[in-house]
Design brief:
The chain is α+β, with helices and mostly antiparallel strands and about 525 residues long. It is built from 21 helices and 17 strands. Strands 9-8-7-11-12 form a five-stranded antiparallel beta sheet, with helices on one face. The chain has a four-stranded parallel beta sheet with strand order 15-14-16-17, sandwiched between helices. The chain has a two-stranded antiparallel sheet with strand order 1-2.
Length: about 525
């Protein structure tokens, strides 16, 4: 993207400084854009000197900057790119991660010089403890390090559980803590209506940024921790990102502290808060037109994991709502450049780019559209499962609880929330509005191929490819890749270090068990 090309340390041309790794014709470099500590401090100094508010933290500022519509703004901020992986069509070209780092340096990329090959767990432990204190000397902020198998062939063989590779472990350092006072507690309404208590704090610096608010999660959590207005509390950043109150310092109480009482009505629209089930921990605003819910729903719809509409972040969404140009996600497709240009945040180029970005997403992938609708309990993977099973939005909307529950990985809770969402009159009107505006998610086409109608489960580790890679090859040939053996499973692919439970279930159901070699033969046909 144009913004990345403005970064000074992203090479316009690859160098060839190492004959051991000549410049290839095709490669993929993965990495991360970040704000160096010194550069972030310098930027904030300039902002303060100009009478402007400084940015809160380098991580969010880097993310917000790289998503800007105008590359000229990006040029004015000293962002850096740090590469951490290099991929080739033939994995044998880069057999280890240490060679990948070496090659990245040779090609002209900035990659961690701190990366090191260690041979046993004692060395790993010592290395991790060393950087717990020395990380403060780095040019960038970090809350931990990643430990992974150096041999990429072994990395693939170990496979993936969900989205987590078995061959990589994140080692997190204890979150930095600080003490401050709770000035007040207010309730924030999320896009699903969740009413979340938030503590207003006396400003305190935690993990490199100023914290003035922290989540308290829900009413039960406040009671469990006995957090009161006026308390001196310990705060940290969960995952070094989200401010959170750890506990109150009870011994410092002087009697002026007040016990928080959950409001009975939404602070945004005055609708009575409800709990859909008696056992729910969260109170919710049921008003779909609640102003707070509206902008968060639109922001979610446009987010990277959903429709990925560039330029439609929180501030721009709020500006559009305040100008009464949009009220729900479908309304964004009615926007014109002339309307957007009237807002202070936009110039001619940025207005054109925003409208073009929105119109380009009129036929989104079904799974992204379903996730973007913001149905409770439906994340990215569940949206993908629903899309692959039902293949169209209409089919998902007509499915019964029993039909939804038949989909692998979807239980009763998800099935109920899905049926409930599609049955709500205001959601039906939203879908009808999308349709009238020409927004039609893509139908998932059934892939024909030599494995059509066949279902596979893989158990154990395969020598030639990882579990997810095997799944992609099965789906590409029209087959179905399953996570567990069922009545409709045709083949159980048996690798090394297998679990006894899947073998036993396959034997009980009469599922055909095949070796890795037989599986590869099926793929070749």
């Amino acid at each position: 993207m144009p913004n990345v090309r403005t970064l000074g340390n992203v090479p316009e041309r690859l160098t060839e400084t190492d004959s051991a790794f000549p410049v290839p014709t095709l490669l993929e470099v993965r990495g991360e854009v970040y704000f160096p500590v010194a550069g972030f401090a310098e930027l904030n100094e300039k902002l303060v000197a100009a009478g402007k508010a400084p940015f809160a933290n380098p991580r969010n500022t880097a993310a917000g900057t790289i998503r800007q519509l105008d590359p000229k703004l990006v040029v004015g901020r000293p962002l850096h790119f740090r590469a951490y992986d290099l991929l080739r069509d033939d994995p044998a070209d880069v057999p280890t991660y240490s060679e990948a780092y070496h090659a990245l340096h040779a090609l002209g990329f900035l990659a961690n010089r701190e990366a090191k090959v260690l041979t046993d767990i004692k060395q790993v432990t010592a290395y991790a403890h060393k950087w717990e204190t020395e990380r403060q000397k780095l040019a960038f902020n970090t809350d931990g390090l990643v430990i992974k198998a150096n041999d990429r062939r072994l990395y693939r063989r170990l496979g993936v559980v969900g989205k987590a590779p078995r061959a990589a472990v994140a080692f997190k350092y204890p979150a930095e803590q600080a003490t401050t006072k709770v000035k007040d507690i207010f309730v924030s309404i999320g896009r699903t209506g969740a009413a979340t208590p938030v503590a207003m704090l006396e400003a305190v610096v935690v993990a490199g940024s100023t914290v003035q608010m922290a989540t308290l999660h829900n009413e039960s959590e406040i009671k469990r921790k006995d957090i009161r207005i006026g308390d001196t509390v310990i705060v940290h950043k969960a995952g070094d990102v989200i401010p959170e109150v750890v506990e109150p310092l009870v011994k410092l109480r002087n009697g002026s502290e007040k016990i928080f009482k959950m409001p009975t009505h939404c602070p945004e629209c005055n609708t009575k808060l409800v709990k859909y089930k008696a056992e729910d921990a969260v109170w919710r605003c049921p008003n779909d037109a609640c102003p707070s819910r509206s902008w968060k729903r639109i922001e979610h719809f446009a987010s990277k994991a959903a429709l990925d509409i560039e330029g439609l972040g929180e501030k721009n969404v709020i500006a559009l709502i305040n100008a009464e140009l949009v009220k729900d996600p479908a309304d964004i497709y009615t926007l014109t450049e002339e309307q957007v240009l009237k807002l202070e945040r936009f110039a001619e180029i940025s207005a054109h780019k925003l409208v073009a970005a929105i119109q380009a997403k009129k036929n989104p992938p079904l799974n992204r559209f379903v996730y973007g609708l913001g149905i409770r309990h439906i994340g990215t993977q569940t949206a993908t499962d629903l899309a692959n099973h039902f293949r169209s939005l209409e089919a998902i909307g007509k499915a019964t609880i029993d039909e939804l529950a038949e989909v692998e990985g979807i239980g009763e809770v998800v099935a109920e929330s899905t049926v409930e969402w599609f049955s709500e009159p205001h959601n039906q009107k939203l879908l009808e509005k999308f349709k009238k505006l020409g927004v039609q998610p893509q139908t998932v086409k059934k892939v024909g191929g030599k494995l059509s109608g066949k279902s596979f489960v893989v158990t154990g580790s395969l020598d030639s490819l990882g579990r997810e890679e095997a799944g992609e090859k099965i789906r590409a040939l029209g087959g179905t890749f399953q996570s567990s053996v069922g009545k409709d499973t045709d083949y159980l692919v048996v690798g090394d270090n297998v679990g006894a439970s899947k073998l036993a279930k396959a034997a009980k159901l009469g599922t055909k068990q095949i070796t890795e070699a037989e599986f590869l033969q099926l793929l070749k046909g």
